[in-house]
């Protein structure tokens, strides 16, 4: 039987580091598993493994009152955006990277991917449209669902879970960021055998197929 | 104090009587000690986990200073709103003979038992741009989430009942005969309110104000949901601490210490000021 504790990867790392019991830890980045590794808290010779990949996606509500269909529309005045807090939520960190990519690739005349000077200050302008830096990526999506924000940045996988209420606007791969999810067994776990079995299954073809069904990108791509 | 030993009593009896009194006395005092330890140990743990002075200076960054400023500004504003609305409300509610007073009484107590996250969701559903009221506000260019006003609304919502309860009790405890006497001094009821009723109720009003301000300073769930987390605009100290927790526990501890110290300072300071005033209370 699996018991889940869902929160931002940063929150979970803090809890585990303080000794809150955990058997398996899945982080939406490598950073938080590295933090635990630096504190020698991981099992299997203090190691973690890559679990899957994910990508950043833009979400708007079904009724899309602000008529946001492209990334450039985010520059329109009055658009309200929700993102995960970049310091502690991996999705927020990745989102800022996407914005910087857009600004430096699409908005920079000397870049081979140059599109238009509209994007020249993309990152700076869009940052001023942020109305909340949420404690986890799900809360950013919730801001869109409740109308507090017009758009939110989340993961492709979030689109599958909320398909009925959200429109997903894909982010082109030349500016998108690949999120690397990592998984580890915690050294203090009292269920190491079962924990390792679970991790092995997730990394197996059937486990990866299951993850793919829910919008995650498996290790094989 | 054990009674004078009666030479006619058996020595053993006397000793056991004295022991029983001391024993129950010790047992009784064990309880407050447990309560105090339960409160002090976690708070001390926060202070003990903050690093030395040099690092402490590095930890004071713009976000921290903004959070402190926002917390103080919003909590104080909320308190002003609460008192402006609350004093007349509490006064009106002392008129127990008016029908409906009991109903109002119960309703304004609701935020106390409401989980803050529910309060935040409720405010969001009532005032966010997607709601009917929010849509009207939108036409005037007003959007509450992401605005400091939303922070004040959230704090007022959750802290108001704390002030109201104390204020209500304070007004109710004033002997009605005093008000009759005051009205003989001057026909203006506002005058008698200002010069007689308010001073008499001041203790309860101040106690309620401390409670409400403390609750507003600590408000987290409703603020996070309704006002959102925007450093410099809506990120009060509790929000800053919660987000810091996921990044750097020492930063979180440091900001927590500041919050604890500020709150304590205000509570102790106000208590001192009130305590030194001469009490005019003439209780029924």
Set down the secondary structure blueprint.
The complex is a heterodimer of chains A (221) and B (284).
Chain A: H1 9-17, E1 24-27, H2 31-38, H3 43-46, E2 49-61, E3 81-84, H4 90-106, H5 122-128, E4 130-134, H6 137-146, E5 151-155, H7 156-161, E6 166-170, E7 178-185, H8 192-203, H9 205-213
Parallel strand pairs in A: 3-4, 3-5
Antiparallel strand pairs in A: 1-7, 2-5, 2-6, 2-7
Helix pairs in contact in A: 1-2, 8-9
Chain B: H1 11-48, H2 53-59, H3 62-93, H4 101-113, H5 116-127, H6 132-139, H7 148-172, H8 176-185, H9 189-218, H10 221-227, H11 237-245, H12 249-276
Task: Please give a structural write-up.
Chain A is an alpha/beta fold and 221 residues long. Chain A is 37% helix and 20% strand. Chain A has two domains: 9-52 and 179-213, D-Maltodextrin-Binding Protein, domain 2, CATH 3.40.190; 55-170, Periplasmic binding protein-like II (D-Maltodextrin-Binding Protein, domain 2), CATH 3.40.190. The longest helix of chain A is centred in the middle third of the chain and has 17 residues, at 90-106. Chain B has one domain: MetI-like (MetI-like fold), CATH 1.10.3720.10. Helix content of chain B is 77%, strand content 0%. In chain B, helix 7 (148-172) packs across helix 9 (189-218). Classes of the chains: A alpha/beta (221), B mainly alpha (284).
In DSSP terms (H or I, runs of 4 or more residues), the helix count of chain B works out at: 12
Could you give a short account of the major beta sheet of chain A? 7 strands, mixed
Look at the structure and name the CATH superfamily of the largest domain in chain A: Periplasmic binding protein-like II
Write down the Rg of chain B. Answer: 25 Å
Provide the CATH topology of chain B.
MetI-like fold
List low-confidence stretches of chain A: none
Instruction: Look at the structure and give the mean pLDDT of chain B.
Output: 84
Report, as a whole number of angstroms, the end-to-end distance of chain B. Answer: 35 Å
The CATH architecture of the largest domain in chain A: 3-Layer(aba) Sandwich
Q: What overall form of chain A do the CA principal axes indicate?
A: elongated
CA distance, first residue to last residue of chain A: 29 Å
Please count the helical segments of chain A.
9
* Proportion of helical residues of chain B: over 70%
Strand fraction of chain B: under 5%
The CATH superfamily of chain B is identified as MetI-like
Q: What value does the Rg of chain A take, in angstroms?
A: 18 Å
Number of domains of chain A: 2
Helix share, percent of chain A: 25-40%
